[in-house]
C-alpha cells in the first residue's frame, strides 16, 4: 500500500511560500503543511534522530511520516 508522504513546507529563502506550495502541488503532493518561518527549523531537525532510529529498527529507509488531522 502506498501512503503519500507528508511534505513539510520550509522554504529556505523563498520569496513566497505559496510559490513553493504551488510547485509541490503541481508535482502531485496534496498534504502540504507550512510550519512557519526559519525559526521552526529546530523542530524539523529533530525528525532526523527519530528517522535514524526507525531506519535502524525497520532495516529499510522505505517508510514515511504522516500527520493525521482530527475531525
Word description of this protein:
With 71 residues, the protein is mainly alpha-helical. Helix content is 38%, strand content 6%. The protein has helices at residues 17-26, 41-45, 47-58; strands at 7-8, 32-33. A two-stranded parallel sheet has the order 1-2. The model has no long low-confidence stretch (mean pLDDT 77).
What does this entry show, briefly?
38% of the residues lie in helices and 6% in strands. Strands 1-2 form a two-stranded parallel ribbon.
What is the fold's blueprint, element by element?
Layout (H helix, E strand, L loop, with lengths): L6 E2 L8 H10 L5 E2 L7 H5 L1 H12 L13
Parallel strand pairs: 1-2
From the N-terminal CA to the C-terminal CA, the straight-line distance is: 24 Å
Q: What low-confidence regions span 5 or more consecutive residues with pLDDT below 50?
A: none
Q: What average pLDDT do the residues reach?
A: 77
Gyration radius, in Å: 14 Å
Q: Quaternary status of these chains?
A: single chain
SSE arrangement, N to C:
EHEHH
Proportion of strand residues: 5-15%
Number of helices: 3
**Class by SSE composition:** mainly alpha
What's the β-strand tally?
2
Strand order of the largest sheet: 1-2
**General form:** globular
Helix fraction bin = 25-40%
Main beta sheet: strand number and arrangement? 2 strands, parallel
Task: Kindly list the characteristics that best describe this protein.
71 residues, mainly alpha, two-stranded parallel ribbon, 2 strands, 38% helix, 6% strand
